[in-house]
Amino acid sequence: MSMSELAPTLPPTLETGATLEGELAELIVAALNLEMPARQIDPEARLYGEGLGLDSIDILEIALVVSKHYGVQLRADDAANTQIFRSLRQLAAYVAAHRTK
Amino acid sequence: MLAYRGAEPVHAAHFLAEAHALAAALPPGRHIINVCTDRYRFAVGVAAALLAGKVSLLPPSHTPEVVRHLQAFAPDVFCLTDSADCPIDLPQVQFGSLAVGASAWAVPSLAAETLVAHVFTSGSTGVPVPHPKTWGRLAQCVRDGARQLGLPAGTALLATVPPQHMYGFESSVLLPLLAGAALVAERPFYPADVALALSALPRPRALVSTPIHLRALLALPQVLPAADLLLCATAPLDAELAREAESRFGAPLMEIYGSTETGQLATRRTASERPWRLLPGVSLSLESGRAWARGGHLEQPTPLCDELEMLPDGRFHLQGRLADVVNIAGKRSSLAYLTHQLLAIEGVRDGAFFLPEHTAPGQTGVTRLAAAVVAPGLAASALLAALRERIDPVFLPRPLLLLEHLPRNSTGKLPQEALRALTAPRPGP
After folding, report:
1. In chain B, what are the domain boundaries?
2. Which of B90, B211, B327, B411 is deepest in the core (most CB within 10 A)?
3. Is pTM beyond 0.90 here?
4. CA gap B363, B212 in Å, rounded
5. Which CATH number belongs to the domain containing residue A92 in this structure?
6. Which residues of A touch B211 (CB under 8 A)?
7. Among A74, A75, A77, whose Cβ lies nearest the Cβ of B186?
């Protein structure tokens, strides 16, 4: 399955989206030992590479967190090319559309 | 069967025909950096280079700084890529579709001393150090390894590691080409994708992976596909994790010890044995406190970067890394090298990399490095961007501390303890 097929078709409501974004930001900061407050993560900034500066090990770490907390198993063949990790907002939208818990 | 691409089996004859077609299309330069992400294309690239009398260069990373050094090492170097937007600043050859004729190619016979590749370590002074690998030694190494690992004939090898580093090169590319296993082109990343790709392969099948990926796989709640062998390398694996992996995949897990300089040297079945068994003919000795390996597939006696305890029966225990050597997610470097790269950035007055003491590893078991820097007028983001040009991203400091001066002692030395104190948890407000 390609990443474009995985992209959510409907954006979550602003309210749910913002809450989930905040929750995900907290989980990411804790899981990766990032030395910054979760609220400082720009929801539109790139997570991978430039931007927040995450690498593939971080992405794997986030995949574990997202699976544990929301029952979402991320799928792709190359972490560097995923739409999902474009930004916190994209990740939150994906989780909102696919969460099972 | 030589390889699988998706569900497609690829026969050796087709592989050879593609290698000949690619060899005919390569430019005249004698050195090639093969960055193909598809493992099958990478293998075709290596074979084509051999047929055309060229040498593959396998650097530890492809940062602009490393690429500049490789160009100085081999001015005729070009890059073989299967990506449309490869950022490497060298003449590029796109791995396109290959027109394969009907001619049947014989399996080429290569002289044992044929130079296959220079595999590079990052070196301690900023210049990558080449380690030449010849056909005969590589073949001996992977064939001895296959026997000792108990690799069933025809095993399909699914790998989560790239083919460009020594472990992946030996275990996911050379085992298929030289020891009768089958290569798998895909390199799945997410745990769910790895499980699915493994379940899609015919048996016997094996997973070539790392402690990081095994941990992530074992965190999956579902039943994992049965395997016939698990291989693990790059960092020591916990025995408990090894036992869990053996039970969930229903396969023996063999751990491999080796290095870029030496290739694989020893194996152990981690679930039930702590000591490592050397490959046939390889022996160890201690010289001035440093462990050396020689014999077997090794061209020459080679110093190791680990502390070893030798046992009377010829086996050994791994005790840890030598001071200054760091291994993050299977990538090796040294604090001296990383600090050298930091100090080379314009505007940096003083700085040092160090191992922070108080950060807990994440679920994948990885601990990151930290750095302290004196660089008035430079923002952390600018420093990180400059470092990204020079070092592999796994070594990027987390945290990067901007200071007015480093905690040097009265003789100007910078004790690791003083640096570690900088990242000690501060009492809460």
Report:
1. 3-321, 325-422
2. B211
3. no
4. 9
5. 1.10.1200.10
6. none
7. A77
